[in-house]
Amino acid sequence: MLTKKQIQALKSDDIQALYALISNPHSNAELLFILENLGRLPAGFVGDALLPYITHQNDDIRYWAVKNIGKLGDLRYLNTLYERTEHEANTIVRRELVSAIGRMRDATACPHLSRLLEDPDPKIVIQAIRGLLVFKQAPEIRERLLALCDHPNEQIQLILRKEFGDHDTASDYGHHTDSPNGMKNVAVLGDVRDVLRFVPDGSIHLTFTSPPYYNARDYSIYDSYEGYLDFLGEVFDAVHRTTKEGRFLIVNTSPIIIPRISRQYASKRYAIPFDLHARLVKAGWEFIDDIVWAKPEASVKNRNGGFMQHRKPLAYKPNAVTEYVMVYRKATTRLIDWNIKQYPQTVIDASRVDDAYETSNLWHIEPKSDRVHSAIFPEKLCDWVIRYYSYVGDLVFDPFGGSGTLAKAAVALNRYFFLTEIMPEYFERIQQTVTGDLFQTFPSRFVTTDSFAHDMADRTQR
After folding, report:
1. How far is residue 118's CA from residue 331's CA, in Å, rounded to a whole number?
2. Which residue from 84, 58, 59 is spatially nearest to 70, judged by alpha carbons?
3. Nearest-angstrom CA–CA distance, 62 and 39
4. Same domain, 107 and 235
5. Which among 41, 184, 218, 339 is least buried, having the fewest CB atoms inside 10 angstroms?
6. What angle do CA 375, 379, 382 make, to 5 degrees?
7. Which residues lie closer than 8 Å to 57 by C-beta, 6 or more apart?
8. pLDDT tens-digit profile of 363-408?
9. 129-143, 258-272, 372-386: which has the highest mean pLDDT?
């Protein structure tokens, strides 16, 4: 049986024998094995033995034959490969054909790639763009690519924004690691929308919050569900402006039930995470992950009572033991690596997550109760989010401060907190939470919206 080691030996010691082996395999399985394991091709390798296989009936064989020809970057195969793109039915093979043309990195291939920009398959267009970007300084190529900026495919738009867009980050406050001193370990009593008006663009590294649920608590009464979503949209628009480039917004919420007003009417269930999601994406937040927070069934309201007795189909109601922790990133053309590289190595090392991290998107965490606030964060949930999505010294924000759990977790992890809370009784509860020896080392301030505004103005003028 042929081995990888034998293929490598033929490449270096007997290239003619390798050509013969490729041209006359014992079976399709052996041919595919050879093509998959050719690896880096030696200088002077001639691809003629591979050409017959770009029309082979087996999709995988066609794919690997094209991929290996592409490694050569040989213009002799340009027209053959291009002609094949017009007849290839398999999307993956066709995409590899375009990639092979682009890898030639020769202006001779540009007319072929330019014609492929009109292809109905976005994946083909993307491969053609990649090949043409090598020549993007040429006026005619630049003009051809810029004409695609309004292409309906969002991935194509993203590539072109990254290549031709403005990467100026002057709207961020100071250096990427900086935040205003007037926001560090500060809780503000007031409407978050009013407070954020006094916060400079790009000041916040991470926002983690659980918005008030629609008409499910006494502190969250809205005229309509649409009005509730409008309110959250307004808040998260302001959070977007005040968030640093490429940093995270994490929202904990779940569907809720508004009980029926009598037996003549049905209860109403609202899919808050899903309805809010569309608004967040439209506002410039890029969806990253959906994390499911699972609670013990004994800790949630039982909805099985009636069904347990009569077991009638259509009346089944599962106990709601999960909430969503939806992860978003402020949309940017920069990769996560850019954000990480803004920190000195000492901070990167100090922020590394230990081995006991959660590997899945299903987080089993016990809920917590509070004598004042009816819906508080478990500290473990805050701890995990802060560890996974921020660095030591970052500013962590909760626009609905609640009982202040995020502040406690942030300081314990050597981050700064910034909270807003509109309810005086909850604001008082935050002050009780943010106490103890830890907060002697990291002093906190509790202010009104007006005093926060004056303080931020004074610091700006200094």
Report:
1. 27
2. 84
3. 16
4. no
5. 218
6. 95
7. none
8. 999 987 655 545 568 999 999 999 999 999 999 999 999 889 999 9
9. 129-143
d(CA 330, CA 239): 10
Residue 172 lies in a domain: no
- Please give the structure tokens belonging to residue 160: 């072109």
Do the domain assignments include residue 169? no
Q: What are phi and psi of 149, to 5 degrees?
A: -60, -25
Count H helices and E strands in the chain, helices first.
Answer: 21, 11
Q: Residue 67's pLDDT is what?
A: 97
Smallest CA-to-CA distance from 183 within 167, 206, 163, 166 is with: 206
What is the distance between the alpha carbons of residues 48 and 18, in angstroms, rounded to a whole number? Answer: 12
pLDDT score of 373: 46
CA distance 360 to 130: 33
Q: What pTM was estimated for this model as a whole?
A: 0.82
Q: Return contacts of 47-54, CB within 8 angstroms, 24+ apart.
A: 47/72, 47/74, 47/77, 49/19, 49/22, 49/23, 50/22, 51/77, 51/80, 52/23, 54/80, 54/81, 54/84, 54/97
34 and 112 assigned to the same domain: yes
Q: What does the pLDDT read at residue 268?
A: 82
The answer to whether residue 171 sits within a structural domain is: no
Q: Which amino acid is at 460?
A: T
- Provide φ and ψ at 354, rounded to 5°: -75, 180
- What size, in residues, is the chain? 462
CATH of the domain at 87: 1.25.10.10
Q: Contact 106/77 with Cβ under 8 angstroms?
A: no
Residue 415 has pLDDT above 90, yes or no: yes
Q: C-alpha 133: how far from its chain's center?
A: 25
Number of domains in the chain: 2
- Tokens 């290839």, residue located: 88
